[in-house]
């Protein structure tokens, strides 16, 4: 059960995603990074069909890069979110992508923002969002503890609370999570939360 | 019968493609552009015609990025350039998307040249009226490259080259004065080559420098003026040394 969630804090936005790649009853790997760095100041956390997830987010990433080369300035987070939603909407009634996306970004003029984009091209600008079965738990915890302009420490604490709740209450809970952050200094990986380490193969 | 091959790109009886040759004429009328390859730095320079007082000079960028590690300058019809540059930019991203690797300089040069050639062998179209200078660092080996394409669709790699107005004089200068350089020396060589045919001053030259890690950087007018001043000083010193014969006592 894939799980992706995120929230907006004071001058930053944070995204957390589980890192299990699953096919039916088999776990392929438990360190699959589902949060893509879209450009210097944007993150895309995606969950859904593995093929669609990678294909669609890479397509968006390359188009965002093309815009930047053509126009000399990067897209705003809102523009990137609307472009993404537009692509999902266009494909919806022919060849829909089964991907749910949380797009987080930081713009110099407007600060941090988070966009909830689901697989049928719903677009909402939100302070907190989540996808998957884990969203039931993540939303409950975030609704209880979230307040606007949280500091980084408070936000990480909230993310950890959500991860704890998902791990303890979801029947097939993903063991590992990755947390990424975007602020005025750019988008980057913040931390991993691992409870299962992939054992490295002993070399002969 | 004798005139039909002027309007479309078909062979003339003596084996010429007149449209392509006329396109090369258009290039010869365009602003001078020069490219110099150093060991860790590659420089592109373009002649800037005096900007109209009311024009915002920042909107007339003659040296452009195709990707983070590739840049292009051209001489000839700038409107045609916009079309080629747009197609090249799309190809750079498309390549990254399909094979998850950035393009090599040679690949994108071959692509642009291929595009230019297509338009010499298609019905109802005319060739692109521009020659391009393409620079970049190979994303794997880090080797610097400078390539040139022309309206016929041929391309080749160069250590230093020029195209556009008075390109022959600039090329002669480069052939006489080229040596392996790096860093600021490469920039100076490119500016010295351009100054052969352009009135001196930061106002009339646009220079962009590409380095291995940091991509393309456009030089500010003040920076160019400073380097031009350096060059003039060196020239003056060389003149003075020549004029004053060393008197050994």
How would you describe this protein?
The complex is a heterodimer of chains A (204) and B (249). Helices cover 33% and strands 34% of the residues of chain A. By secondary structure, chain A is α+β, with helices and mostly antiparallel strands. The longest helix of chain A has 22 residues, at 50-71. Chain A is globular, with a radius of gyration of 17 Å. Chain A starts with a strand and ends in an 11-residue tail after the last strand. In chain B, 38% of the residues lie in helices and 22% in strands. Chain B is an alpha+beta fold. The radius of gyration of chain B is 20 Å and the shape is globular. The mean pLDDT of chain B is 91. In chain B, β9 and β10 form a beta hairpin. The A-B interface holds A 58-59, 62-63, 65-66, 69-70, 72 and B 61, 65-67, 86, 89-90, 92-94, 96-97.
Comma- or semicolon-separated keywords:
heterodimer; A: 204 residues; alpha+beta; five-stranded antiparallel beta sheet; 4 helices; 34% strand; B: 249 residues; 22% strand; globular
- Multimeric state: heterodimer
Structural class of chain A: alpha+beta
Helical content of chain A (DSSP H or I, runs of 4+) = 25-40%
- Work out the helix count of chain B: 6
Task: Characterize the overall form of chain B.
Answer: globular
**Number of beta strands of chain B:** 10
